[in-house]
Amino acid sequence: MLARQYLSFPWSSARFCHGFTNxxxxxxxxxxxxxxxxxxxxxxxxxxxxxxxxxxxxxxxxSVPTGLFINNExxxxxxxxxxxxxxxxxxxxxxxxxxxxxxxxxxxxxxxAREAFKTTWxxxxxxxxxxxxxxxxxxxxxxxxxELAELESLNNGKPVKxxxxxxxxDSVQCLRYYAGWADKILGQAIEVDNKTKFAFTRHDPxxxxxxxxxxxxxxxxx
Length: 222
Prior knowledge:
- It is built from six helices and eight strands, in the order H-E-E-E-E-E-E-H-H-H-H-E-E-H.
- The chain is α+β, with helices and mostly antiparallel strands.
- The chain has a two-stranded antiparallel sheet. A two-stranded antiparallel sheet has the order 3-4. The protein has a two-stranded antiparallel ribbon with strand order 5-6.
- It is globular and about 70 Å long.
């Protein structure tokens, strides 16, 4: 018997983008880069134009990318000119429009993710390194919890306090939980009522997977 641990790569945010496109392969640390002026800022020279969104509680404005996030870059679609509007449910005002991905965008995203899995994240990266990177992501989310909660609230109408203290906090706890397991390379032997068989569990990264992110818990479920 084989118990497998499923991993996906690269991660994507349904809050800021709806697809992917292919870029030069990045190292894991590039996926977790950040600056003080932009939440989870990345190399933006090829991305669609970002929008500036005001954060009432902090009187700051945050630059939010609107392109497709692939291989550590926010970029335009390969062939789609369609966009998706993000609407504030409280005021029915358009917060911003994000690029709508096409089938070709998804194809190149999967190809980029598979290449990354073979080189910078999967079996060639130690559990200790994966743990460090996951904890680093948790640190960044925790640092920007208020701003992320404000963005969540604008997009789905949830009270900021609930978004911050439940959704964002749960996301951080979840990441830290799995970061703690990443370097625990342990299996388990299981007794079976058969002297000719031996059963055991093994945590084995499978590869790339897709996920549909819900509108009401986007960061938490991502």
